[in-house]
Every structure is written in C-alpha cells, then in structure tokens.
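INFO batch 0412 | record 1 of 1 | parsing
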Amino acid sequence: VGAAISMTYITGQPIVFVGTGQTYTDLKTLNAKAVVHALMK
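INFO prediction complete | emitting tokens
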C-alpha cells in the first residue's frame, strides 16, 4: 500500500484498480474506504 500511495503522490494520478491475482479478471475497482479500514485495524 505504501508504494501505491507514494506513486499516486509523485504522479498525481489516482489509483483506479487493485490487482488481487495474476490475470486481468483479478483486477478489482479500488474501494478506498476498505483500504483505509484495513490499515486502521
């Protein structure tokens, strides 16, 4: 997560998808609230 946040900061581009596996069908739309919730646990 840290690398993704750093890349977003440097490039100014948003994170749109998250890879959860190794194929295109494993790309999921980013749920920012779920990521923040997981980080705060």
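INFO post-check: The CA atoms of residues 19 and 27 lie 5 Å apart.
INFO record closed
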